Structure formats: structure tokens, C-alpha cells
Please model this.
Amino acid sequence: MATGRTHRPATRSRGIPEATVARLPLYLRALTALSERSVPTVSSEELAAAAGVNSAKLRKDFSYLGSYGTRGVGYDVEYLVYQISRELGLTQDWPVVIVGIGNLGAALANYGGFASRGFRVAALIDADPSMTGKPVAGIPVQHTDDLETIIEENGVSIGVIATPAGAAQQVCDRLVAAGVTSILNFAPTVLSVPEGVDVRKVDLSIELQILAFHEQRKAGEEPAGEGAADTAPPAAPPAASVRRRTDGTDSGPDGDVPAVMPA
Amino acid sequence: MATGRTHRPATRSRGIPEATVARLPLYLRALTALSERSVPTVSSEELAAAAGVNSAKLRKDFSYLGSYGTRGVGYDVEYLVYQISRELGLTQDWPVVIVGIGNLGAALANYGGFASRGFRVAALIDADPSMTGKPVAGIPVQHTDDLETIIEENGVSIGVIATPAGAAQQVCDRLVAAGVTSILNFAPTVLSVPEGVDVRKVDLSIELQILAFHEQRKAGEEPAGEGAADTAPPAAPPAASVRRRTDGTDSGPDGDVPAVMPA
DNA sequence: CCGCTTTTGTGCACGCTTTCACAAAGGCAT
DNA sequence: ATGCCTTTGTGAAAGCGTGCACAAAAGCGG
Model:
């Protein structure tokens, strides 16, 4: 029953903690905004506020990159922008392919933030033959058959999966086989990949469910009135006579379309 | 310089760790799939594999919900689906509004996974008057002017922001003022909200940047050849003579459109 | 009715993250 | 120059999350 393919063991590459890496883009965005307003320097306090984090955390994060600040003054905005960009690998160009040009895939293709950060949409790929050649966001959609060729010719190492869940693993396998080593997955599935391949997941449904949890919690504690009667246990665990949903509204398997997608 | 509005202090509501809550939707999805195949029971090992986590972790997670398993046998699928659904608050209906019907907003509106999980798109809202009345995913878009009325009349407590970054905070404020207490933010901005309001963020750009970091790391260590010369320091920190990007390709401020959006 | 097998539930230890608190360091005014 | 004020950089401590390893249960066969 072993997965056969392992999951990244939270490597913490080269001393920079994963948690810090995840915040660097946040800092970078705040710094870029300051840079555009020609602000020369920022204190950790100001920048932390702009990024929505604690100032101590920010200073510690930056300390992993080196001592780029000046005591009594703060951080040089331009310099820090450069350093973080370099650390994140944004000083080079990353060709990216998007697989699955449905509603979401198209939206992703149109995303303006791609180019401005060193990412370049090298190709759009879809399995539907009727899509082939059709331009989306100015880029003609190519057929899945050419996936391997596209990856290799463009030296793509980052792939975005926006296909239905059913196709995701298969697409993933092909991407990996062709040389992709980083995947951003919008399909509501757990992808299994060989060691050395990074997968990050974006899932609207999961985010909403987490919000619902907290929402329910809020509603059930503060007011102490209005419904939310958690009583009435559904059925016995060993017996199999439990109705899944209160009503029968169960429109389809769900988990068959990526985070955002109609068909 | 104080933000004035606080961020959620990782409350860990009522004993269930935040990390566990974040995994419950994952388990639920795997369980739903099993349920559809009429599988009566699962062991923690099997379910963990399906959800892509460690079995010990899964068991510990479930232990926070109660003892719903049977030793020597495993977990009753239907029963567990019900329990997790209830815990996440999915046994009730959550009306949701989507603000900002651009490329991404439209994709979200078309998302099929909404209804199947207890979420219902109550309304689509956009600031563009020319959008008003136009049906998207079968729902007519309404104007921002009516935001408050819509929220109140439908008892909406969860809002999705898919506007450009510039409008996000303003929309957020109005949502909160109207009674929304949970927000899913797709705009690349840090939202500040009063205490008691939950915000979750989805940001394509950040995910890609994190991938790029690891990608660069991989490329710079394993092969030990091919470029990746980290030498050539850019400039002095105190002096302000650093060019931000290697080339001048800086198309726009970025951070002005939500995660996915053309205009 | 007993013992064997399976699988859960969890005590415990380890490592990562966050936060505090403060000494070191830089700049500026006098 | 000297001293004061500001802000960084970082030990150290506390808090979480993860995973191991195993005892406690439940079922089953003899």
C-alpha cells in the first residue's frame, strides 16, 4: 500500500526555513509597492505592517538572507527587492506551461502577474482537439499529444495543472516524465510524484470549507442562541445506517473538476 | 503605525488544531470518493494514502473529533463522512457572494464544487455598470451599490473577493461592515480586518514564486555545472544604485490584479 | 472461552516556528 | 568627538505540529 512515490520531506533547502520562503513573496510585493512610490528605506516595523506580519518575524526572516539592514535606519528598499528576487530565483526567466484550458486555465493564462515576476507562459495545452489552435490570451492552445515536445523544446520546469481531477495524475505523470520538476496543482486531487518533484496545491473548495468551520464555530459560541443545536446524534458508528447529508442534495461526485471549472 | 485592526491570533477553536482543520476537507474528499464506490470501511493506512498524509497524523487528527473508529477494523466511511461534514459545518447551507466578476470571478462562479459541498452562490457583484444584469453562470451580476442589501437580505457570512488589488480593501471593508465574517481573498493584497473576521488568501503569484525558489535550489545544487553563478554582488546596501531586475522588463506594478485576471 | 491478529488511540520526544527581549551598531546632533 | 536615540540582528524560551512506537481494544477462529 506504499505510495511508491514519496512526498517532499520538508527539506528546508540550504538553511532557509520553508516558512520564511513562503513569506518572501509577501515582503517582495510590499517592497515593490514602496519602490514604486520611490520610498528609499523602510523599517522592519513599517514593512511588517505592510506585509501583515510581526516585525520580529520579518527581521528573523531577513536574517536568514544575510544582514541587509542598517541599524538605526532600516532596510534599503531597492537593494532588498533585488536580494529577495535573487533568492527566490526571479532574476531569471521561468517558462511555464498551463495544462487544461477550461474556465480556470483561461483565467490563469490571462493573468497579468505572470510576466511581471519572471514567469512566462510558454504554452497552453488542452486535450480537447476543438481547442487546438484557438488563441487564449494571445497564445494558441496546443494539443496534449505534443506535451512532451513542448516541455523539452522550451526547457520548461514548472507546470500548472488546471484539468479536471480525473486527468490530473495522468497529466502530472507526463509532465514529470518530460522533465518538469515543479507543479502547481489546481485540480482537487492528491498528486503523487517521485522524489525531487515539488507540488503545491491550490484548492478553492478546501479554503471555503476551512472558512465554514470557523464560521460555524463563531456562530455557535458567541450568540449562544439561534439554532446551531449540535444535538441529535445521527446514528451508531458500527451500524451502517447513517445518511450522509441532511437533505439529498448531492449534485455529483464533486472532486472531478479543478478548483475552478464549469465542465 | 499600528494596523488598528488585528489579525486572527491562531485561535485554535475549541481544541481542534488549525493544522487538523486544514486537513479535514482532504479526508472528506477521499472519504466521499470511497463512499461513492460503496466501500463500507477504511483503515487509517488506506485513507491516509488516499489523502496523501501519514497514517499516524490522520489518526491523531480524528482523535480530536472523537473515537469514531473500530479497532481491528477501521473507520465506517459513511459515518465518518457525516461526522467530518458536521464538524466543518457543511451540513448547513452557506450562502456566498463573489465580488469582482472578471476572468477569475467568472471562473469561480462557474465552479461546480460549490453547490456540492453546502456552498451556494447567493450573488455575483461587480463595480462595472455594464456588467450589471448580465448573467454569469446563470446568475445575473448585480452592482456594487447593492452590496450591503444583498449581504443582509441573504444572510451572507462568507464573501469571496476577486477584484483588482486596488479595490480589495475597500470591498473588504464594506463586506465586513455589512456582516460578512469570513473572506476568501484572491486579490494580491494584505487585507486588514477587525478581530473576529477570518481571512484566507489564495495567491497564484506567491505559489509560483515559492516553486521558483525550490526550482532554483535544485538547479543550483545537483548538477553543479550549468550557470547559476551566484557571484557578482549587485551593489552596496547603503548606496542606492541597484538596478532591480537584470533587464528592464518591468511590465506594470503587478500587484494590481487579483490572482487571476487580465484587466 | 481463549488466544491471535489487526488496527486504533495516544504518550512522548523531536524539530520547526514564533515571539520576546536585549545587546550591538549605526547615524545625528551638539 | 561624544553621547543619545533609533533600529537591527539574534540568543533563548515557549508553542505547535509531526511521527514513532506501543498498549489497549475489537473481532475471529478454534
